[in-house]
């Protein structure tokens, strides 16, 4: 009986200590996306590419060294383009950023007019993927080889 009382007392103390610790632990607020950064060979060329293709607005950048361009790409989210990469790299299609547009077909038409190749999810040139949920998507490369998905997802 005494052994049972001691075990119950120890269990009660452990529960109390765990509860007290959980109550004193500070819960941090959920993190949110602030920016994406890409490292490029020619910042002016890349900045022009993103601005012309996606109509992103420039935002002030603090460095003023002609090696950085910052764009607003969503509410509270920026794209930082940083010059200094020694050469473009080869990337995997699945390692990409994605921008949604009103109608993928309209963007594909613009890509064709500008001579920018596009690919489907299998990497097949000039093809559009239609996902199981009906969203149409294509992938392109920026001047440094970064893959960008363009789709017509609503959210």
Describe the structure.
The protein is of the alpha/beta class and 155 residues long. It has 2 domains: 33-87, Signal recognition particle alu RNA binding heterodimer, srp9/1 (2-Layer Sandwich), CATH 3.30.720; 90-155, 2,3-Dihydroxybiphenyl 1,2-Dioxygenase, domain 1, CATH 3.10.180.10. It contains 3 helices and 8 strands; from the N terminus they run H-E-H-E-E-E-E-H-E-E-E. It has helices at 2-24, 43-54, 104-114; strands at residues 35-40, 57-58, 68-74, 77-83, 96-100, 129-130, 136-141, 147-151. The strands form 2 sheets. It has a 4-stranded mixed sheet with strand order 1-4-3-2, covered by helices on one side. A hairpin with a 5-residue loop joins strand 6 and strand 7 (136-141). The longest helix has 23 residues, at 2-24. It is globular. It starts with a helix and ends with a strand. The mean pLDDT is 90.
